[in-house]
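User: Structure with nicotinamide-adenine-dinucleotide, tokens only please.
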Amino acid sequence: MTQNNPTTLDVTLGERSYPVWIGRGLLGDAARWRARLRGRHVLVISNTTVAPLYLDRLAHGLDGLQWSSFLIGDGEAHKSFANVEGALAALAELGATRDACVIALGGGVVGDLAGFAAACWMRGIDFIQMPTTLLAMVDSSVGGKTGVNLPAGKNLVGAFHQPRAVVADLDTLATLPDREYHAGLAEVIKGAAIGDEPFFAWLEAHADALAARDETAVAEAIARKLRYKAGVVARDETEQGERALLNLGHTFGHALETAGHYTTLLHGEGVAIGMLLAARLSERLGMAAATDTARLLRLLEAVGLPVAVPPGMDAQQLLALMRLDKKNTAGTLRLILWRGIGKAEIVAGVAESEVLAVLHEAGASR
Ligand code: NAD
Ligand code: GLY
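Assistant:
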């Protein structure tokens, strides 16, 4: 991978297949991504933090097109219906036709919202993901899950809508705060933990380099995680089976995020703690060995991720939140657990007493 020669992966979905480019200088490499546009209208959606940093880099590539930008505020609270309405109004103002394209420039919040606005306008127009956080590069920009939050809950409204291309410009990571960067590493580790033991071993060997944001190691980690995710999405685009495994740690993690009112923990941090709780539960249920839990714990700590339930969280409250997870069926908890590193599986009917025991052990109060 060099400045002019990015790593290229393909998400293979027949006529809707698309490239994922990972490399440096890609926002300014308009000849590459402009070839994926079909019409003359472009709406760039970004936020008030990212646009001042990076909008200029892609703007010259839009010369000669009819384009405008729509900026949302910074943070999860802005992944809202009100902002979808704002984006649709901006498309109307632009006079966007069915061959128009939305460009999402930002983290997962911008990407999820922009993709959903693109899915809604005239029942679906193109969009291109230009992720600027590590989390968005390795997870949310690929796979076509788009949506927004409601006051009643996170990601309750959405659509599967695949992008036309994903442009992961590694230069943008230079300004990403450390805490956000570490949270993105949780999503990298997740992919390896679910289904790629050799990648997990590679992450263990490169943990120090990754924690220090070594560029070569980061680029390799992104490409390996995305290769794994692209394969899962190609086999199970709409989560009828295998794709559910990508939620390892999420049932615990979402409960932790919600209990912390989305301010105590970042999404990736919730996933990190959640994966460890899933590993401990798997061990308790006799599905996996303690050595696997220990390896996961060591790796999460080595890259600077939290591993304990934050102080003051109540086990019963967390369990109640876990009962609301979309994967559950009437009356039973359905969790993603593992049989060891690289061997995640869906487990239905997990006893709540076992979940409570794991939560207590990890520091949740009684
Ligand atoms: P985010 O979009 O809020 O970005 C994190 C922070 O980093 C924000 O403050 C943002 O303004 C800032 N930022 C972004 N790029 C920057 C840069 N290059 N330099 C400096 N600051 C920068 O959060 P996120 O972690 O990227 O994404 C989280 C969202 O993604 C959640 O809403 C989650 O539900 C969603 N998500 C979606 C999927 C999916 O498959 N669609 C998967 C995982 C997560
Ligand atoms: N982030 C989970 C998925 O894309 O399915």
